[in-house]
Design brief:
By secondary structure, the chain is of the alpha/beta class.
């Protein structure tokens, strides 16, 4: 009996099918829709002829408490493995089978593994207007709506729940009387407003609730690819319509506040920098108010610039790595994935990834003098390295005695789906059977994307497009968190081969918490534990050096896997598939061929890449403790004087001697002090910022990054001149032209005045904090060394390293200092109260 319509079931066919059966297992998605109908139709049959009907529940029924005895889950998806386990479980009740039990154990094993690393969260695109518009003032909350801005629910902006399209804010109509809160914000996209959102606003006006709707006008349906909003929707028309509906107050916040005409009467327009103040004012307005936030979708701007319908950005943001403190304030305030960390000899710094930057400039809000804008500049494109020498010999044809399953796992927008499509086309060109299934979800927002590619000798050999549990023959792990995520990890079995890119891009976790490291290690460990044969590769770094663009990493990995003999399609078919794709054909072919060369001789390709893209001196890390100390000694001489450098050396050597007395051969504590003591002795005060801007390395970094005739503007909050922003409590930055570089060069030459009576900055709050931190650290080291034992080294090193967390400028540095002081007190208490190790006494022998 084949079900042709789920409801109502055809009764005669069901009864004919059920006659003579002992049990019927219903496998259906979601809730037990067909199962209930079967039970109802067969209810009046005699007990001796009525078959059992099971599906979501077995014969124990569906009402036990707790409600956890699901035979088949009512949520999520039903995979072939889940259905097979349910069928096998029921069969084993009637007939024992050792083979069936082994197969059940095999299917259950992947699900029983320890969980892998946290999933890669989808995030707002670089420069997305929602990164700013979905923030709420301190003490307020918001309700989420349908659209990209739904992602605010898992960010640091107190945004709650979600709703159906057009239901934005409607829950507040019932909650307002009982929630205790007096006011709430509700986010609504412009497409939703035109579709049905206006009805929600109208209902709020009729109910008289206290709510502020934020209409996020971004000029595109960004969630589904940037289509234009249906209908003649403009900001002036929205304001006029809302005014006619009786909204109490309407305000427009815009990146271009001077471009409006024909707004409704009484509508004020503010620049986007005043968003917080505008929101604070609106939450005091009784009734329904509306804030229209007008800024075009960042991804759509990027598309329009590529098409030539929008002028190229007039300026770009650049971070002077020497001046950067690595505090991450620019990352937190911009919520931007293009503000990426760089590990250097002097700690973590940040840089702007010009390739992904959409030129929103929100990062300029970071309270840091390292952020500059470069006007008239074009990002310099690297051309990579030409292929050299003969290509390695092609591997023998891969066997296809059984279907080959390839799982491609990576980040949305990096070409994962393209790799799968190329494999599918190549298999088709070779006359093979193939299926390609892309699981994208929110991949275009930086989330994980999985592509299942199955290749067989004939199409009839492929029963299902999805790779089953522990059944992947090859995993192309283009991103470690994606490849080790729950949906991908379950596909890895003992026979799987895994090629993993260990260059891990930052995610939302690092944007919100800049001190956290985006590491491939948790993913590597999870994949190794899953049992597959694992090989790692720095694909992103190699692609950037050899091809001039890290986006080529996935094709590079495909070439490496093919050369290993793990991909059962011919080289000719893959080359032809790349040509038929007709996008960056030469670059993709070069990436594929460089990947082949890496597979044949990894060390040689590494040497070529290092020569093509040498690291700046600051990113070359010291190889031993003596080199680490010597480099900092030289820095302190340039910073101030030889006397300061000798003071540094003396402090470090004192700790080294103490450490060797209690733990010979250990350098953990000394290295921590060498880094932290240097950090405290060389704070980036006014003279140091000036010196680092005058350093030729700044101009060289600009030259490496841009081409064209450019001018640099600095964005500074100069002590004694900067006004305090009442909304943030932080100094306001101002923009200064190229003349400021000349002024800074003069100031740099005045650094011998630092700390003397002639120093005009000496009595500033920040400089007093610098001196206090040095004195506190010296006292801390005295305490640590007084109680130091061999079993204390790790704890003592943690205490000694705390000043490295005191980063940033102004209020940012002050907040970090307070956090470090609190942590220091906690750790010192543990250190000084730690019991002495028990002394083992040998028995006295007569």
């Amino acid at each position: 009996f084949k079900v042709g319509m789920a409801w109502p079931l055809e009764a005669d066919g069901v009864r004919a099918f059920a006659q003579g059966l002992e049990e019927i297992l219903v496998v259906e998605e979601k809730r037990q829709f067909i199962e209930y109908q079967l039970k109802e139709m067969l209810y009046n049959w005699r007990d001796d002829v009525r078959p059992r009907v099971v599906g979501k529940f077995d014969e124990s029924g569906e009402w036990p408490v707790p409600h956890g005895q699901w035979l088949l889950p009512p949520t999520g998806e039903l995979t072939p493995a889940l259905a097979a386990r349910a069928i096998a479980t029921r069969i084993l009740r009637f007939q024992r089978s050792e083979r069936l039990e082994q197969q059940l154990a095999h299917l259950a094993a992947p699900a029983a593994r320890p969980a892998g690393p946290p999933a890669r969260l989808p995030w707002f695109c670089s420069g997305c207007p929602h990164s700013r518009s979905t923030r709420v003032p301190e003490g307020s909350a918001a309700l989420a709506g349908v659209g990209c801005h739904l992602m605010a629910t898992w960010m640091d902006r107190n945004t709650l729940t979600f709703c159906q399209m057009g239901g934005e804010g409607v829950a507040w109509l019932g909650m307002a009387e009982h929630a205790g809160a007096q006011h709430i914000y509700a986010n609504m996209g412009d497409g939703t407003y035109y579709h049905s959102g206006l009805l929600a606003i109208r209902a709020a006006v009729a109910a008289g609730v206290h709510i502020t709707y934020k209409i996020l006008y971004n000029d595109a349906v960004a969630m589904t690819g940037g289509q234009p909003v249906d209908g003649p929707l403009t900001v002036p028309r929205i304001t006029q319509q809302l005014a006619a509906e009786g909204v109490a107050r309407i305000v427009v916040v815009s990146e271009e506040p001077g471009r409006y005409a024909e707004l409704a009467a009484g509508v004020a327009v503010h620049p986007r920098d005043e968003l917080d103040a505008v929101q604070r004012a609106l939450r005091t307005v009784p009734g329904v108010s509306v804030l229209v936030f007008d800024q075009t979708c960042a991804a759509e701007k990027r598309r329009r610039r590529k098409r030539g319908t929008l002028p190229a950005a007039a300026r770009r943001v650049f971070i002077n790595e020497l001046v950067c403190e690595g505090c991450g304030d620019c990352s937190v305030k911009s919520n931007c994935l293009s503000v990426v960390p760089v590990e250097t000899e002097y700690g973590r710094k940040f840089r702007i990834d010009q390739a992904s930057c959409n030129v929103d400039e929100s990062c300029l809000a970071g309270l840091c003098p390292s952020l500059v804008t470069v006007e008239g500049a074009v990002p310099r494109r690297a051309h990579g390295v030409a292929l050299d020498g003969e290509a390695p010999p092609e591997p023998g044809p891969a066997a296809l005695d059984a279907p080959c399953s390839v799982l491609v796992a990576g980040i949305g927008g990096t070409g994962v789906v393209t790799v799968a499509a190329l494999l599918g086309m190549a298999a088709h060109l070779d006359g093979l059977g193939v299926t390609v299934l892309d699981m994208t979800g929110l991949a275009q927002k930086g989330g994980a994307v999985l592509s299942h590619v199955r290749i067989a000798r004939a199409q009839a050999d492929l029963a299902a497009p999805r790779i089953d549990a522990a059944a992947a023959d090859l995993v192309l792990g283009c991103d470690a968190p994606a490849a080790a995520g729950a949906d991908a990890l379950v596909k890895v079995g003992r026979a799987s081969r895994v090629l993993l890119n260990t260059d891990t891009a930052i995610g939302g976790e690092q944007v919100q918490h800049p001190e956290r490291v985006a590491s491939a290690q948790p993913g590597t460990d999870a994949l190794r534990a899953a049992g597959g044969a694992l090989e790692t590769i720095h694909a992103t770094r190699l692609a950037g050096a050899l091809l001039g663009d890290p986006i080529a990493a996935n094709l590079f990995m495909l070439g490496a896997a093919w050369q290993r003999g793990w991909v059962p399609v011919s080289r000719a078919a893959l080359v032809r598939a790349i040509e038929l794709n007709a996008v960056a054909v030469d670059a993709n072919l070069r990436a594929f061929e460089w990947g082949r060369r890496w597979a044949a001789d990894p060390l040689r390709v590494e040497r070529i890449a290092q020569a093509a893209a040498p690291r700046p001196a600051s990113q070359r890390l010291s190889t031993d403790l003596d080199e680490l100390i010597a480099r900092r000694h030289a820095w302190l001489v340039a910073y101030q004087s030889e006397a300061l450098a000798r003071r540094y050396d003396a402090g470090v050597e004192r700790v080294r001697a103490a450490e060797q007395r209690v733990a010979p051969g250990s350098t953990q504590l000394t290295e921590a002090v060498a880094r932290a003591w240097f950090h405290l002795l060389s704070p980036k005060d006014e003279y140091e910022v000036a010196r680092l801007y005058a350093d030729p390395q700044f101009a060289q970094a600009l030259q490496r990054s841009f081409e064209g005739a450019w001018r640099v503007r600095l964005h500074l909050a100069i002590p004694l001149l900067a006004r305090i922003d009442p909304a943030t409590g932080e100094p306001r930055k101002r923009s200064y032209g190229p003349w400021m570089l000349q002024a800074l060069a003069v100031l740099a030459r005045l650094r011998p005045l630092r700390g003397t009576r002639l120093d005009p900055f000496r009595r500033g709050v920040e400089r007093r904090l610098d001196r206090a931190l040095i004195a506190e650290y010296e006292r801390t080291l005295d305490t640590v060394l007084a109680v130091l034992r061999g079993d204390h080294i790790a704890l003592a090193a943690e205490i000694a390293a705390l000043p490295e967390s005191i980063r940033g400028y102004g209020p940012v540095r002050a907040r970090n200092a307070e956090a470090a002081r609190a942590r220091r007190a906690e750790l010192l208490a543990r250190l000084t109260q730690a019991p002495a190790p028990a002394v083992r006494r040998e028995p006295v022998r007569a």
